[in-house]
Amino acid sequence: MEKKNRLILALDVTDRENALRIANEVSDYVDSIKVGYPLVLGEGLGIVKELVEIAPVIADFKVADIPNTDRLICEHVFNAGAAGIITHGFTGRDSLDSCVKVANDFGTDVYVVTEMSHPGGVEFFRPVAEDIAKMAVEAGASGVVAPATRPERVKDIRKIIGEELSIISPGVGAQGGSAADVIRAGADWVIVGRSIYNSDSPAKVAKKICDEMNC
Ligand code: O7M
Q1: Ligand 1 pocket check: which of 7, 37, 60 to mutate, most ligand atoms within 8 Å of Cβ?
Q2: Active-site residue, 155 included
Q3: pLDDT over 70 for what percent of the chain?
């Protein structure tokens, strides 16, 4: 993913009309659009084909299954035109390897969740976040997902993964995190949803977040 704006839109609206309207409005300010279950269950995987005309798409299915099922999910998503996929890591190295193999065949990216941004994200993830980050490096993933709500954890995870992998970081705005703080802590991109798509002026909010990050 080209690092121009450092902003990824989390497009968690559930209908095509709003999705395309918001994506078009903010296209100058985002490097990628993240779509997940809310929009794809609402409109089908075909929405990815429409969105890639506007910006590269990361498919957030937090893939977490046995290697064969993971492979099938990744193949569907990349055939639909997505440039990247988000997977969990707790299912183990063989499952992650399966996703990375498909991504390598398509020339696309895999991002692995380390510790999640919501309060419950510390309950089970905290003790394993570092190990998952290490595994992401060893498996040849493109990057990891780490919480903007805890910039100190982004710092810890950056130390583990080094400079080669990217950190994409949700939790800015609606969840209380600051874009500038988490970029300073070592994130490459912030992922922002509600603050942008629930706003009367998505483009204005997106621009403001970009300005905060000096992009
Ligand atoms: O800005 P928000 O809070 O409206 O949206 C944040 C988006 O990031 C939303 O799509 C979440 O599903 C996602 N997300 C988190 O909020 N926290 C995480 O720890 C991980 C993700 C995510 O994108 O995982 C890949």
Answers
A1: 60
A2: no
A3: 100
